[in-house]
Write a structure and sequence with these properties.
three-stranded mixed sheet; mainly alpha; 8 helices; 3 strands
Length: 187
């Protein structure tokens, strides 16, 4: 997470205009509702198109799956209202809410749900919202709720949580919080 200045935002908008017309990013209502429910306030999930993702500096430069813009005041992170997602994170979620949950492997869906939950944790704006490890811990404890909210069958939710824990084990050290009580996988 990092603060992106007005110049960067304007520069990105200019690049998009200079490149010609493209299909605009989408903001799927079901993901917005789930993210807003988790964030405890109205927020937006912005799904980038492939073309937009190729020009998005955070997605391309940092190989990010998603991010929330905001500002860091030296003590805490103050999030904006939008989480921006790479296309590969939105596609499994869109398929899920359209009634095609098996269009993607469960591993991909679990990762997309974990990322959605993580970004909603940042969007909550709590004092810990800028601490990647604490937010990741919170996301692991809430990914099952997000899965149910978006329509994952109750009997599949434990598998999603177990897969989210497997994804978590592969993440860099800054996603660790020593005091985290991770959910127990139960498959």
């Amino acid at each position: 997470m990092r603060w992106l200045g007005t110049a960067l935002v304007l520069g990105t908008a200019w690049l998009a205009l200079a490149a010609g017309p493209a299909a605009p990013s989408s903001s799927p209502p079901a993901q917005n509702r789930a993210a807003s429910w988790l964030a405890l306030r109205p927020v937006t999930v912005r799904c980038l198109t492939e073309r937009e993702a190729a020009r998005d500096e955070v997605i391309t430069d940092e190989n990010a799956l998603a991010y929330v813009e905001g500002r860091w005041d030296g003590k805490r992170f103050w999030p904006g209202d939008v989480a921006t997602f790479a296309p590969r994170m939105c596609a499994p979620l869109v398929a899920l809410v359209r009634g095609y949950p098996h269009s993607y492997p469960l591993e991909e869906l679990a990762l997309a749900l974990l990322v959605l939950t993580l970004e909603a944790g940042h969007l909550r704006g709590h004092a810990w919202a800028g601490h990647e490890g604490r937010v990741q811990c919170w996301a692991l404890r809430h990914v099952g709720y997000a899965a149910r909210r978006l329509g994952v069958a109750a009997q599949t939710v434990p598998h999603v949580v177990a897969l989210a824990l497997e994804w978590d084990a592969r993440l860099p050290e800054n996603y660790r919080w020593p005091d985290c009580r991770r959910p127990k996988p139960s498959r």
